[in-house]
Amino acid sequence: MSYNFTVILLAQSLMLLLLWESASGFGLRCKEEERRALFQIKAELQQQIELEWKGMECCSWERVTCDPITGHVTRLDLGVGPMPGSILLNATTFLPLRQLRSLSLSGLGITMAGAGFESWSSLSKLKILDLSYNLVNNTIISSLAKVSSLRVLDLENTAIVGNIPVKEFSALNLEVVNLSKNWLNGSLPYLGDWSSLKAISLAGNSLDGTITSTGLCHLKNLEELDLSGNFFAGNIPPCIGNLSSLTILDLSDNQFHLKLSSSVFERAVSLRYLSLSSNLLEGTLSISSFSNHSCLEVLELSTSGLNFEVEVVNLPLQLLVLQLANCILDIEPTFLYSQYNLQGSFNFHL
Ligand SMILES: *[C@@H]1O[C@H](CO)[C@@H](O)[C@H](O)[C@H]1NC(C)=O
Ligand SMILES: *[C@@H]1O[C@H](CO)[C@@H](O)[C@H](O)[C@H]1NC(C)=O
Ligand SMILES: *[C@@H]1O[C@H](CO)[C@@H](O)[C@H](O)[C@H]1NC(C)=O
Ligand SMILES: *[C@@H]1O[C@H](CO)[C@@H](O)[C@H](O)[C@H]1NC(C)=O
Ligand SMILES: *[C@@H]1O[C@H](CO)[C@@H](O)[C@H](O)[C@H]1NC(C)=O
Ligand SMILES: *[C@@H]1O[C@H](CO)[C@@H](O)[C@H](O)[C@H]1NC(C)=O
């Protein structure tokens, strides 16, 4: 009897507690205004992405991250796809998310006609924006150039045409820019004043000309440079091998005519990925010049000509990928035994 009574009492106080919590919003982190905005965003995107967003606590919803202390939404990852279709996104719907730092809308089939993107200049915390795989095209550029907080901008495959919009972007302090798989043409403009730049990908466009006087060597913070799959020609500026922060250098699939020697990359000791493949390579290079490159994993030196000699000697590091198609090789016999991590792409054409 008294046992039952205790149970009932306990259950009653629990119910009271729950009622009080939901009535007062005690413990609720989500801001009402932001929750409403999220519901609106959900409705706008309902054709493209199914979001199980319900209830009051938006901070516990999938793809939503809140600041643990203030409860403001700081991150929204709505990237999917790529999805077919075209969504006229109303960009002003995002404005109540004033503390938003990172937003991905990758692959949602967004077209620019929805507009209102210039209003994002009031999202003063927005640092990371991923609009890759949408049909936003050039019309978005002038709007984004007003979002002065942006640091990382991903516009891979977004139907952007014409010249690289360096002028617009260098007004921002962008650190990472991905413009790969667009329809960019013309030559690489002068980049030497873009001092914040850490990573840029221009892969898979129709860019041409030479890169020798584009100021690349002034970019002391440059970590990633991907120019693969264009029509660039000529040599590289020799100073590029002095960029000691460079971890990824991909110049593959171009029309470069690179005159190489063992000293070229000697000082670029942070390199993890170096691909010069599918260009015309010339000269002699000993891979012993990479002895101090303790992070090097991928080394691709396949050439489209027949005048490039590579001395393949034992290295005090383990490569994952080594491509040397068409190179004239001088191989130390024990090299293969000492490289036990080499994977599929190991490619000697003797
Ligand atoms: C876009 O959203 C805002 C805020 O929700 C609303 O006031 C405005 O009418 C919408 N514009 C269009 C074109 O739907
Ligand atoms: C960009 O897309 C809009 C529709 O979203 C279209 O009206 C405009 O012509 C496109 N611009 C270019 C340069 O393709
Ligand atoms: C670059 O592309 C634009 C837009 O497609 C075109 O009008 C222009 O003629 C192209 N320029 C060059 C140099 O090919
Ligand atoms: C675009 O390039 C940047 C920098 O190289 C990289 O971090 C990012 O993952 C790339 N984006 C996509 C969609 O591959
Ligand atoms: C690279 O840096 C070294 C040391 O600072 C310097 O002596 C050399 O001239 C530089 N090479 C190029 C090609 O700029
Ligand atoms: C590697 O670094 C050491 C010490 O700085 C230096 O003496 C040596 O010449 C370097 N080797 C190569 C191949 O650059």
TrEMBL record:
<dbReference type="GO" id="GO:0016020">
    <property type="term" value="C:membrane"/>
</dbReference>
<keyword id="KW-1133">Transmembrane helix</keyword>
<keyword id="KW-0677">Repeat</keyword>
<keyword id="KW-0732">Signal</keyword>
<feature type="signal peptide">
    <location>
        <begin position="1"/>
        <end position="25"/>
    </location>
</feature>
<protein>
    <recommendedName>
        <fullName>Leucine-rich repeat-containing N-terminal plant-type domain-containing protein</fullName>
    </recommendedName>
</protein>
<keyword id="KW-0812">Transmembrane</keyword>
<dbReference type="Pfam" id="PF08263">
    <property type="entry name" value="LRRNT_2"/>
</dbReference>
<keyword id="KW-0433">Leucine-rich repeat</keyword>
<dbReference type="InterPro" id="IPR013210">
    <property type="entry name" value="LRR_N_plant-typ"/>
</dbReference>
<dbReference type="Pfam" id="PF00560">
    <property type="entry name" value="LRR_1"/>
</dbReference>
<keyword id="KW-0325">Glycoprotein</keyword>
<dbReference type="InterPro" id="IPR046956">
    <property type="entry name" value="RLP23-like"/>
</dbReference>
<keyword id="KW-0472">Membrane</keyword>
<feature type="domain" description="Leucine-rich repeat-containing N-terminal plant-type">
    <location>
        <begin position="33"/>
        <end position="67"/>
    </location>
</feature>
<dbReference type="InterPro" id="IPR032675">
    <property type="entry name" value="LRR_dom_sf"/>
</dbReference>
<dbReference type="InterPro" id="IPR001611">
    <property type="entry name" value="Leu-rich_rpt"/>
</dbReference>
